[in-house]
Amino acid sequence: MSKQASKRQQKKQLLVERTARALSVAQDEAERLLSITREQSVRVNSLLLPSDDKAAIKETYRTFAWYSDGLHVDGEQLEALKSSSLVSEGELYIQNAASWIP
User: How far apart are CA 70 and CA 54, in angstroms?
Assistant: First the structure.
């Protein structure tokens, strides 16, 4: 193991220990909680995305009840979207949903 990988592992272990203490849980539970995949939000650029594509995307991903152009995506979906032409061409933006609140 390289020196950098070892240092990263030590930092990870320290984070797990601190989280376990802060939450009063076992270390394996703290590690499980820290490894949960977060949901990410994506905003549809309705000015660029054709309405047919917009409808298809909204069938694929869950929408926000309070924002019709906002979508929930999980970790695997996010990785696929990051490298897609939808993101690179500006038809979808990866954003935190909190940024949509006026």
Answer: 11
Helix axes 27-34, 3-23, angle to 10 degrees: 110
The answer to whether residues 92 and 49 touch, using CB atoms and an 8 Å cutoff, is yes
Q: What is the CATH number of domain 40-100?
A: 3.30.70
Mean pLDDT by 10 residues, the chain (102 residues): 85 95 95 86 91 86 90 86 90 92 84
Q: Are 42 and 92 in contact (CB under 8 A)?
A: yes
Q: Which residues pair with 48 in a beta bridge?
A: none
Q: Evaluate the CA torsion angle 53, 48, 98, 42 in order and state its sign.
A: positive
Contact by Cβ (8 Å): 81, 92: yes
- Predicted confidence at residue 70, as pLDDT, reads 93
Q: Note the residue count of the chain.
A: 102
Structure-block tokens of residue 67:
């924002």
